[in-house]
Design goal:
10 helices; Heat Shock Protein 90; five-stranded mixed β-sheet; membrane; rod-shaped; alpha+beta
């Protein structure tokens, strides 16, 4: 119990309440001492008034008045005259004198603590102002033994009452904390355990119900986290299913493309100039498709294989991409252009970079076609001090806000109706595999520009 939040709160409550009572104890005892001494002065004044009324009091009656007042003698100052009104033998010398007329709070608390600390009884002189202005001052001599006993009795009663108050307060706070804080926290913990058993089940996502603001904020944050986690797990499951489907399709497609490769030999033997010009491009396309199918079957997962780096001419690769895209354009009014130095040689995986550029150009073409207007797509590249820069720019309508928010996330960054949103995610992963970065440089109503940055240094 002591290791629990409510148990520790109970202990801290008792400690702090007792500390507060201790701070109250000192001025309380000082006040009690002052009242005790003032009471002795008032009794002594009453006794002296009885003597003044009848100056022929017997010694026995005078002694009885002093015993009732609890003092040894009484001195009054009236009309500038100091008069010993009542007196009896003093058992010792006077140790200290206290003038209650001039004592401040700190003096009273100091004297009270010294009195409690001093266990030896003594004789003290107490000076005060008479009640109802019956003179300039009244002075008594008294023993401190009774004063200390009364102060100890009062202090113990104060401490006992403080302990009772602290225990009752701590119990009430303990029950309030358990009901308002501990019980809701245990409910959240229990919910987290139930959610952990089946995080894919959206019905187990917490619904904020706490009335305490901080707990409700915690439940709201937990709800957002669980929602994101459930969506991520569902997306992971869809990706796994997609990977299995792609692997099966790739297996059959590879067989079909392998058969198609057998026909390319006969096509290359044709004497038709157009066929001779198109045959190498057809062979390269089929080879790339077969390679992609083999990679999918070899890895069987969403991750791309590590790039096989080599030096190649980027201009020739970009020309192949644009030439293949021209065949897909058909009669659409879309122009393709490139601005790449003919001698620009970069280091990378030609097959993966071909796929990256093909995806970017294809996305740009589809965006322009969707508008029904004419457009232009350009590929530019140049070398900087530490990186190669490739830009793919189009004059399409620009990306909508939703697509920008989930730009490189599979199944969420799609722009076209019916699109999967995989194109940019694939390009981003391929470029990251090269140690580079894909970034959206610009998008507005005048078009979109994507930038690929490939480092020149060695990649791990």
């Amino acid at each position: 119990m002591l290791n629990s939040l409510s148990g520790r709160f109970l202990i801290l409550t008792v400690v702090f309440v007792m500390l507060a009572e201790v701070l109250i104890f000192v001025p309380s005892v000082a006040r009690f001492r002052e009242d005790y001494l003032l009471a002795r002065l008032e009794r002594a004044q009453i006794a002296s008034l009885a003597l003044l009324a009848d100056e022929m009091l017997s010694e026995e009656l005078e002694r009885e008045l002093l015993d009732n007042a609890g003092v040894y003698n009484v001195v009054l100052r009236r009309d500038t005259m100091r008069q010993l009104v009542l007196s009896s033998p003093i058992p010792g010398e006077v140790d200290k004198s206290f003038d209650l007329r001039e004592a401040g709070p700190l003096d009273l608390m100091r004297d009270a603590m010294l009195r409690l600390w001093d266990t030896q009884p003594g004789i003290i002189r107490v000076i005060g102002a008479p009640s109802l202005d019956a003179g300039q001052l009244i002075e008594v001599t008294m023993d401190t033994a009774g004063l200390r006993v009364a102060m100890l009795d009062y202090g113990l009663r104060v401490l006992f009452l403080s302990a009772v108050i602290s225990i009752v307060t701590a119990c009430l706070l303990f029950m309030a904390v358990r009901r308002l804080i501990v019980r809701p926290m245990k409910g959240v913990i229990g919910h987290m355990k139930r959610y952990a058993e089946a995080p894919e089940d959206a019905r187990r996502i917490i619904t904020p119900q706490a009335t305490v603001r901080e707990l409700r904020e915690a439940e709201t944050a937990l709800q957002a986290m669980e929602t994101q986690l459930t969506q991520a797990l569902r997306q992971k499951e869809r990706l796994a299913q997609l990977g299995g489907a792609v692997a099966r399709v790739s297996h059959d497609l590879r067989n079909i493309l392998t058969s198609a490769q057998l026909f390319t030999d006969r096509i290359e033997m044709s004497e038709d100039p157009a066929v001779k010009r198109m045959a190498p491009k057809l062979v390269n396309s089929i080879t790339r498709a077969v390679s992609l199918c083999e990679n999918t079957l070899a890895f069987g997962r969403a991750e791309e294989p590590a790039p096989v780096l080599s030096l190649f001419n980027l201009s020739e690769l970009a020309s192949e991409v644009l030439e293949a895209e021209r065949l897909a354009i058909g009669e659409e009014d879309i122009s393709l252009s490139e601005d790449i130095p003919a001698s620009l040689v970069i280091r990378g995986d030609p097959e993966q970079l071909y796929r990256a550029l093909a995806n970017l150009v294809r996305n740009a073409r589809q965006a322009i076609v969707a508008t029904g207007d004419a457009g232009e797509i350009s590929v530019a590249a140049w070398a900087e001090d530490d990186a190669w820069i490739i830009e793919v720019t189009d004059t399409g309508p620009g990306l909508p806000p939703k697509a920008r928010e989930h730009l490189f996330q599979p199944f969420q960054g799609g722009v076209r109706k019916g699109g999967s949103g995989l194109g940019l995610a694939i390009v981003s992963e391929l470029i990251r595999g090269h140690g580079g970065m894909l970034a959206l440089k610009r998008t507005d109503e005048t078009g979109t520009c994507f930038e690929i940055r490939l480092p020149m240094g060695e990649m791990s």
